[in-house]
Amino acid sequence: MNLYPAIDLKDGKCVRLLKGRMEDATEFNPDPADQARKFRAAGFGRLHLVDLNGAFDGRSTNADAVSAVLGATDAPVQLGGGIRDRAGIDAWLERGVSRVILGTLALRDPETVKAACKDHPGGIVVGIDARGGMVAVEGWAEQSDMPAHDLAKAFEDAGVAAIVFTDIDRDGVLQGVNAEATAALAEAVSIPVIASGGVAGIEDIRRLRKLAHTGIEGVIIGRALYDGRIDPAEALDIANG
């Protein structure tokens, strides 16, 4: 199982939000590139970046910070937030991002996402952020009437590399990952699923590892890493076991 340390970017700095609220941001590192180097030195082989401003603005806003991270690490980087058209998809993949994460675009314009999957094999991830089981978009500010499972199934056989499934109500609150909902989604589709939201401690890594057979490919870890609740070496040992 893969572990993805999260670097969430707000105004060029590395922060964590509480349930996706921009006004509830805690700054952990003013230098995202430095944070990327620290995660790589700790043994993590992948990074998860989110342009928080971009998610709300509808366009890439923290491009300089993302570029700095790309220049600071040799680890594959997946990026989400504010990528809302084909030009944005192509541009970031050409600049060295290994995978782009598409959430709002996946709901609003699935055909563009499917076309991008064909042209960029392995480069497209669908982000499904759910509140009460229903998809939220526009930086989680807008609630849709689309069930998360229905959106996931819409991309079966499209060539999507993975689905990042986030339980918004768990995000940033350290109450534990919603392993059951993540496993249910993973079993409903053939696309690998990455868990996100609420990881509180090492026990969450153990729970998800035991459910890897359902199709859970990995987990994104945020605040629990920054505040020391999860030891990187122990987490990697469990994930690789």
Could you explain the architecture of this structure?
This protein is α/β, with parallel strands linked by helices and 241 residues long. It has a single domain (2-240), classed as Aldolase class I (TIM Barrel), CATH 3.20.20. It contains 11 helices and 12 strands. The protein has helices at 32-41, 52-57, 63-72, 86-94, 104-108, 110-119, 148-153, 179-188, 202-210, 223-226, 232-240; strands spanning 2-10, 13-18, 21-29, 47-51, 77-80, 99-102, 124-131, 134-137, 142-147, 162-167, 193-196, 216-221. Strands 1-4-5-6-7-10-11-12 form an 8-stranded parallel β-barrel, surrounded by 7 helices. Helix 4 links the parallel strand 5 (77-80) and strand 6. It starts with a strand and ends with a helix. 48% of the residues are buried.
Fold blueprint:
Blueprint: E1 2-10, E2 13-18, E3 21-29, H1 32-41, E4 47-51, H2 52-57, H3 63-72, E5 77-80, H4 86-94, E6 99-102, H5 104-108, H6 110-119, E7 124-131, E8 134-137, E9 142-147, H7 148-153, E10 162-167, H8 179-188, E11 193-196, H9 202-210, E12 216-221, H10 223-226, H11 232-240
Parallel strand pairs: 1-4, 1-12, 4-5, 5-6, 6-7, 7-10, 10-11, 11-12
Antiparallel strand pairs: 1-2, 2-3, 7-8, 8-9
